[in-house]
């Protein structure tokens, strides 16, 4: 098949980019260029969002107001959440989709290449709008990343409007990106690549894209209602006019819960690619992996009110949402079981991607279990708005979604760049990251169970020790990521050239291409057995 | 076109996405500054809108030229079709949020404010004199949200508009049939009639809003009934406006002979969009005006 790949380059097509320098990136229609831009954007924003987190942790190192004002602290929690969700995890996953989906299904590019570029370039625009709020007069958004009404309507600072339109732009970007991904997967698969032969990563992104198209418009609706309430006197979230502030939470979490699966499903896909390679086996239970992903996606639409157990919703609703939430543990359990099943009696090789993947399986499962605890209504009355919730979702997002991305980078960077990184450096990065993240987030479970509320700049004395540990861990975690950046730069600049297969028993179309793949690939589609 | 090899067209590069991003930036920045009463806000907004219009002309122009010169294969046509369907799905979900708000307030939160469903204390402690009814004319806090004098009628303008839009659904189908049979003149007449019906709908909705503001004292700030009324019908009207503009563009493209009886994706996409707007209106007629 690699002959077919080589042949395709004898066309009259040009071989490289149409422009050089800045224009190449601004005007590009190439999925690899766009994927690279998404990934670099996400990496830069990881440090921006991380800096916000370190402000939070520095303030919480000791009790009492030490470094920032409570209002600034609130701006930091808001911006940290918004940046990490919308400008780190989502763009990074989209970047992976851009690079990998055409290579994995044998497509010449994404189906709508110009739209693809627009989806990316909207991101810096949205960043400019929301980022400017930290520098203009008056406070930035300061009500948490969930921007609940009436904090964001009646009491929201003027800068809230910047956030509203930034959300609109981010929604536009991710909806267009997802339409592109769905069309590419449905329409540009190579002959023979049936749906049930697709790599799991492609499957998970197909389902994620569906979720994005289904719920980002709902978020757009929510922020539009906020805007109207703020400026035009509508009564969506005003009880005095017959509306209801709790309705905001319903609409927000109808978006918000599928959103957490949007963040994690592509990571599931990455892990499902990596574990078979480094276990020298095929994935265990391919069909069940696909069905489980689809079940998770469908269930994610009927669990949203588990974020709202203490708002006074009817008991029947609490029971319904408790049971549906617990039901999600079943398909998720299937996935974890199948990953372990894939490793069972495999010839395991603990190279860097595998290290991250195994850590993902273990640490994500911790986050899953704490989620199960939170789903129990009477228990949630205790946990609601405590650090236990913070511990829970950081365990699914950091060693979950973020580790998924890092696993993908360690797995595919040699393919993208044609060069192998230093395994020693990668091991350093892995161990520093794993130790420091547990140091940061594990004590938060205890803090939450002991009653420390989230989103406060000051706390009672008895919480000091665990908070100090968490802060030390957070700074260690932040510094460890510099190793990651250095590893990427040094690999791209001066890594050792690698083979097309890169890994022993790697599987899939992307490994049939040279490393790095030429600028245009699969212009003549390959045939899949 | 069919004798071309099966090569999926990938443009070399395009500056339109970058132009579009710049347009969006000024458009939204201007809008925000306008809300904050900044003196130059409107100019920034207009610059953004102009850039976006320029981008649409240029980008769609590129696509039309590529299509006319036969660069697109069957798969490209399918890509466009799938993406249009998913775009309409995203629009369905957007309207879903506002319909959700309508149902939630009507069925749950308004009755709760009047003490239904174990919410006695909410009722007693907040607005003990409040009674639930729909359309909600007397709001819980009449000093902050003065309710409208009367609800919007259903058997007047709304019914007329329903007939207008349903008829336009028929005319666009007749235009499609004419296009498939290659009857250019019939196509132009039916498509022109569809445009006309769209414009009639918009004028009559404008009249309805005028009636609401001047005679019923029903405004955006008259409580949740008029909030949901104006936001749902308003977003629908915005979609009719966009749809009418798209219909006009396709009319001119029909006149130029861009479409063949086999290859006319743009025409079909616009008609899908128009039918979608039509269905949203039917739901509005039932749940906002009638029931």
Cα shape of chain A: globular
Domains of chain B (count): 2
Rounded mean pLDDT score of chain A: 95
What would CATH call the class of the domain at 1-9 and 26-199 and 509-529 in chain A? Mainly Alpha
Q: What is the first-to-last residue Cα distance of chain A?
A: 11 Å
The main β sheet of chain A shows up as: 2 strands, antiparallel
Helix fraction of chain B by DSSP (H/I, runs of at least 4): over 70%
Share of residues in strands of chain B: under 5%
Total count of strands of chain A: 2
Question: Roughly how many Å apart are the termini of chain B?
Answer: 52 Å
Q: What is the string of SSEs of chain B from the N terminus onward?
A: HHHHHHHH
**CATH architect. name of the domain at 1-9 and 26-199 and 509-529 in chain A:** Up-down Bundle
Q: What's the level 1 CATH class of the largest domain in chain B? A: Mainly Alpha
């Amino acid at each position: 098949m690699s002959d077919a790949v080589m042949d395709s380059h004898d066309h009259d097509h040009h071989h490289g980019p149409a422009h050089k320098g800045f224009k190449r990136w601004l005007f590009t229609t190439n999925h690899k260029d766009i994927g690279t831009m998404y990934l670099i954007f996400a990496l830069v924003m990881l440090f921006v969002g991380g800096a916000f987190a370190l402000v939070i942790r520095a303030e919480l190192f000791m009790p009492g107001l030490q470094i920032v004002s409570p209002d600034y602290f609130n701006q930091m929690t808001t911006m940290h959440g918004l940046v990490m969700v919308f400008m780190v995890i989502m763009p990074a996953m989209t970047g992976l989709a851009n690079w990998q989906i055409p290579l994995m299904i044998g497509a010449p590019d994404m189906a709508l290449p110009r739209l693809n570029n627009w989806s990316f370039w909207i991101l810096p625009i949205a960043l400019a709008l929301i980022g400017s709020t930290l520098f203009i007069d008056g406070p930035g958004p300061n009500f948490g990343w969930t921007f609940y009404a009436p904090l964001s309507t009646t009491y929201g600072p003027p800068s809230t409007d910047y956030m509203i339109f930034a959300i609109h732009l981010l929604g536009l970007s991710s909806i267009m990106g997802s339409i592109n991904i769905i069309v590419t997967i449905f329409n540009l698969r190579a002959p023979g690549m049936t749906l049930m032969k697709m790599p799991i990563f492609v499957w998970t992104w197909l389902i994620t894209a569906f979720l994005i198209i289904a719920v980002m418009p709902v978020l757009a609706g929510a922020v539009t209602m906020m805007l109207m309430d703020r400026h035009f006197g509508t009564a969506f979230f005003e009880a005095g006019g017959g509306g209801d502030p709790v309705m905001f939470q319903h609409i927000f979490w109808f978006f918000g819960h599928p959103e957490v699966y949007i963040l994690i499903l592509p990571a599931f896909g990455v892990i499902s690619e990596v574990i078979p390679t480094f276990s020298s086996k095929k994935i265990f239970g391919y069909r069940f992996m696909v069905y489980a992903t689809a079940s998770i996606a469908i269930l994610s639409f009927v669990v949203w009110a588990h974020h709202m157990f203490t708002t006074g919703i009817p008991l029947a609703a609490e029971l319904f949402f408790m049971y549906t939430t617990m039901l999600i543990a079943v398909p998720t359990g299937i996935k974890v079981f199948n990953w372990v099943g894939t490793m069972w009696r495999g010839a395991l090789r603990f190279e860097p991607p595998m290290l991250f993947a195994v850590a993902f399986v273990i640490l994500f499962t911790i986050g899953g279990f704490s989620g199960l605890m939170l789903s129990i209504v009477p228990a949630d009355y205790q946990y609601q708005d405590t650090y236990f919730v913070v511990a829970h979702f950081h365990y699914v997002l950091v060693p979950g979604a973020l580790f998924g991305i890092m696993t993908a980078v360690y797995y595919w960077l040699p393919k993208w760049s044609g060069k192998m990184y230093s395994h020693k450096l990668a091991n350093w990065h892995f161990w520093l990251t794993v130790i420091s993240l547990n140091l940061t987030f594990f004590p938060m479970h205890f803090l939450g169970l002991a009653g420390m509320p989230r989103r406060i700049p000051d706390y009672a004395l008895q919480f000091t020790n665990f908070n100090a540990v968490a802060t030390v861990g957070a700074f260690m975690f932040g510094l460890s990521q510099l190793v990651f950046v250095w590893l990427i730069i040094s690999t791209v600049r001066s890594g050792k050239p690698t083979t097309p297969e890169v890994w022993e028993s790697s599987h899939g179309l992307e490994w049939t291409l040279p490393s790095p793949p030429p600028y245009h690939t699969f212009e003549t589609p390959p045939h899949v057995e | 076109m069919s004798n071309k090899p099966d090569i999926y067209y990938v443009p070399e590069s395009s500056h339109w996405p970058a132009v579009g991003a710049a347009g969006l930036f000024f458009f939204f920045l201007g809008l925000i500054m306008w809300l904050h009463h900044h003196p130059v806000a409107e100019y920034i907004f207009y610059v953004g809108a102009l850039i976006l219009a320029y981008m649409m002309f240029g980008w769609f122009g590129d696509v039309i030229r590529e299509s006319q010169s036969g660069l697109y294969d069957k798969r490209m046509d399918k890509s466009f079709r799938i993406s249009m369907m998913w775009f309409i799905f995203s629009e369905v979900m957007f309207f879903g949020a506002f319909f959700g708000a309508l149902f939630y307030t009507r069925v749950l939160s308004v009755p709760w404010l009047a003490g239904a469903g174990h919410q006695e204390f909410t009722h007693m402690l907040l607005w003990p004199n409040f009674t639930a009814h729909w359309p909600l004319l007397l709001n819980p806090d009449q000093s902050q949200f003065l309710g409208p004098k009367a609800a919007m009628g259903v058997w007047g303008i709304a019914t007329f508009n329903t007939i207008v839009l349903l008829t336009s659904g028929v005319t666009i189908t007749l235009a499609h049939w004419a296009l498939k049979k290659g009857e250019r003149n019939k196509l132009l007449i039916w498509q022109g009639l569809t445009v006309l019906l769209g414009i009639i709908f918009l004028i009559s909705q404008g009249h309805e809003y005028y009636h609401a503001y001047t005679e019923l004292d029903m405004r955006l700030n008259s409580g949740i009934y008029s909030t949901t009324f104006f936001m749902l019908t308003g977003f629908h009207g915005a979609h009719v406006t966009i749809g009418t503009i798209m219909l006009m563009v396709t009319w001119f493209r029909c006149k130029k002979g861009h479409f063949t009886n086999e290859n006319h994706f743009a025409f079909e996409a616009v008609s899908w969009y128009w039918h979608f707007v039509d269905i949203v209106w039917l739901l509005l007629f039932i749940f906002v005006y009638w029931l």
